[in-house]
Amino acid sequence: MSEIDKCVLQTIVETANDHFFIVSGDGQIVDISPGAEAVYGVSREELLSSSVHQLQAAGVLKPSITLEVMRTRKPAQLMQITGTGRRVIAEAYPVFVDGKLERIISRSRDLTDLQLLQDEYALLQKRFSEHLKRSQAAPDAEEQALDDALDNLQVRSSVMREIALLLKRVAPSDANVLMLGESGVGKTAFAKQLHRWSQRCDGPFIDVNCAAIPENLFESEMFGYQPGAFSGAARQGKAGLLEQAEGGTLFLDEIGELPLLMQTKLLKVIQDGSLTRLGDTRSRKVNFRLVVATNQDLAKQVEAGLFRLDLYYRLNVIPVTLPPLRDRREDIPDLVEASLNRLNQRYGRQKILDTRVWSTLMGSEWPGNVRELENWLERAWLSSPTDQIEVPAVLPHAEQLPVNLPNASPAQAVTLEPHETLKQYLARLERETLEELCNTLPSTYAIAKRLGISQSSVVRRLQHYGIKITK
Predict the structure, then answer these.
(1) Long-range contacts of 36-39 (CB under 8 A, 24+ apart)
(2) What string of DSSP letters covers 405-467?
(3) Could you report the per-residue pLDDT of 69-94, keeping only the tens digit for each?
(4) What pLDDT digit, counting tens, does each position of 10-61 carry?
(5) pTM of the model
(6) Angle at 14 between CA 106 and CA 85, to 5 degrees
């Protein structure tokens, strides 16, 4: 090597950000770069007069990467904590001459300052994010509350969003609400959300399935009874479900199954705002918000003489029809994620879905709607022998539809990556969809209209993924 080459090499070593050690095959330090003194807290002279065995024993090197290379005779990389408390990442390489280990060349990079800068940057980002939230809180508070509620209900489709908006508008009133829709569409979940939005949210939510109470017990369960009202009655009497709903919301599911006699009594409670317990002579005032639900056509039941017309008019103040799951398939991914998370938590294992299952889930007609989807997932979860839920032999009414991005070509079909969780898959799908729309649409308002969500929701999601509109 020429003198010039030696000077060039020395300049490179002395000015590099990395700190170099040259160690002999038996562990004696031969040379070091100047900056190593400050990082390891030992003078150059002391380092040059020491071995790596001594430095590790003294806690200067914790641990020594050179000793690892001497032991394995292979390159190594590890994280060190130096005697000065600094964190460095070190890597070392063996040098062999005629098969004999003659030198070990190691270099280390101090990560302490970098970590401090990253922590400071993260703090600034957090403060900036909090500032943005505060600045947007006033105009977007209602939208944020709605988005949070929809996330809780696992709803993304525009039709369900419109239904939620309607319920949120009528929630402050005491108007009776009639929820219609097939079995399992989520009527109970939306009734509970209506209660949370209402001024009665601090009161009880009493959920009654009218089809589950035997007819001979219905009056005593609903209206309550006095001591000694009938054989077997509790000595202290009992408040009925109508009284238990005082100050809150009474939700009567399967209202179409209500016996005619009970229909008459319920109509009187609605009209008078009072009831009389079995075996009692005095009436009691009651104050609750009534929400009812059915999967039957009440108008046809009225025509058939199975449902009172005057009660039907009393109940049908705010009619809300929840569409079946097959008409809002975009809600399926969120419902699946929430259900799978619950199953994993309940049974203590982290199972994921095989990629092929998605065509089954998205292609099924789901006549039992959300309830059938959740039951099917639980059966699939329990019957799967491994941590990957695969396509079962019997598919639930599936048509094997491909799962594609909105407006995407078949080549852009999204598949679950190896070792990717459902949550990561859905986040990636959302990010890729937003990126595509940002390349084709001119504004967040246009994107919001395309996705059927609010503009503020689009802004929050773009900020979350660090995406900007490019069109």
Answers:
(1) 36/108, 38/84, 39/82, 39/84, 39/86, 39/88, 39/108, 39/110
(2) -TT--GGG---PPTT--HHHHHHHHHHHHHHHHHHH-SSHHHHHHHHTS-HHHHHHHHHHHT-
(3) 898 888 887 777 777 777 777 888 99
(4) 666 665 567 788 899 998 988 887 777 777 777 878 888 888 888 888 888 7
(5) 0.56
(6) 55
